[in-house]
Amino acid sequence: MRILIASLLAVLCSFAMAHEFTAGELYIDHPWSRALPPNAPAGAAYLVIHNKGTNADTLLSASTPMADKAELHTHVMFGEVMKMQRVDSVGVPAGGEARFAPGGNHVMLFGLKQPLVAGEFFPLTLVFEKAGAVEVQVKVEQDAPAPAAEHLEH
Ligand SMILES: [Cu+2]
Q1: Which residues neighbour 87 within 8 Å (Cβ) at sequence distance 6 or greater?
Q2: What confidence score (pLDDT) does residue 19 get?
Q3: How far is the CA of 105 from the centre of ligand 1 (A)?
């Protein structure tokens, strides 16, 4: 039932200005992805998860019909080189936030099934340990920084 309600909210919100989604005490702000050339093999989604509750939650996984596979990634330093690394989960502290942004955490999308075209939306389901599953709509944006080179090398 929780999944159904979250999905309905997502549909309603995708037509609203705010572009924010809720799952219990979690508020998911402005999910977005960069527009990419049609042959790009992989992309990434970014968003900010605010936790307005008094209990920490954890993002466990993500999935989307837009890609063969979605993984939670972060960037870490290997010596002097910044590299992406898969993580099993991302914590969302009570009263805090988990930020997914270029150069840091991101939801990696492998095997894109459709081009990421600016102005379009695609669904992304986030699964939290406590809040359960919530589907958000990711907005594809053109006016973002150029894609990081490492994203094109997958
Ligand atoms: Cu990545």
Answers
A1: 72, 73, 74, 105
A2: 80
A3: 8
